[in-house]
Amino acid sequence: MSVHISSACKKLDYTGAKREVLLEFADHANDDGICWPSRSRIMYNTGLSESAVKQQMKELRDAEVLVVVDQHEGGRGKVPIYRVQPEKGPQKIPFSEWCDARRKGSKGSSDDRQRGHTVAPEPSGEPPSNGVEDSLHSTSTPAESEKQDDGKDKVVPAGKFFTGVLMDAVTAAEKSGAQVHPPPNVGRIGARFRELAKKHDTPTLEAAVTYMVAKACGEVEGEPKAWCGPDRAVDAVLSGWEVEVPAPEPPLYEFTEEEYREHAIFRIRSRSRNKKLWPQDTQEMEVYGITISELWPGEEDQVRIVADDIRDGLR
Length: 315
Known about the structure:
Mean pLDDT: 78
Number of helices: 14
Strand content: 5-15%
Strand order of the largest sheet: 1-3-2
Largest sheet: 3 strands, antiparallel
CATH architecture of the largest domain: Orthogonal Bundle
Helix content: 40-55%
Low-confidence stretches: 107-150
Number of strands: 7
Structural class: mainly alpha
Distance between the termini: 96 Å
């Protein structure tokens, strides 16, 4: 088996039986692409019928991906020797482009469909018309903020949406310093929210998410610190539970300008007990308009200023 030939064949845009037959030849080929697998061997390894193998081999020969280069005598006649030529076959689009097309939901060209490219369906942008609210339009929540190429809001399934809201709330709680474990059975939680979305509105279910996280953080009065299910959370919200908003903190005391000036005089005196003023002291004196006489009345001659050029202006 040649890794080079096998890897090149996997990059060809073939699907189904043709791809299986080609990869079987590649598994038997050497680095030059030479191989001679029997038809029975191909049938055994691929599970295809003899007629299907014959048909795919014929199509590969017509495309010159398989070429008979020689024959040698076998037990039942002449055995053809093939050369696998992957460079002759249609190439797939690059993997990065395929991922982009799948992520964007591009419909792709007709050539892509004929060659067998897998193309993700484009969302319609409209909620399902079955009379049941099983999905939500995007508003301002991060979990709903996905956009289509045409700028319209993408419809997000209710289960996926509320699961995203729940995980965002857990992340926010952890960042605020709360000790909370990840919710168990996230898939089951999403399934329950999908069913509850048929009966309750979005604000009620968002409040239920808040209750679940608050209970898991031990912030619900009279309830143990543990996770609960969406049904119990909805019942608590409908029973009147609301998020406790902490009382606003009293405003900090605002100092007056005169008080700032008195504190500045105190700081300068504390730093300059030997009556030696450094540049930071003189700068602060200029800001608050403090003179040497205010600092040490009657002792101006004993004050030493590092910056002599501003001494006269401070007296």
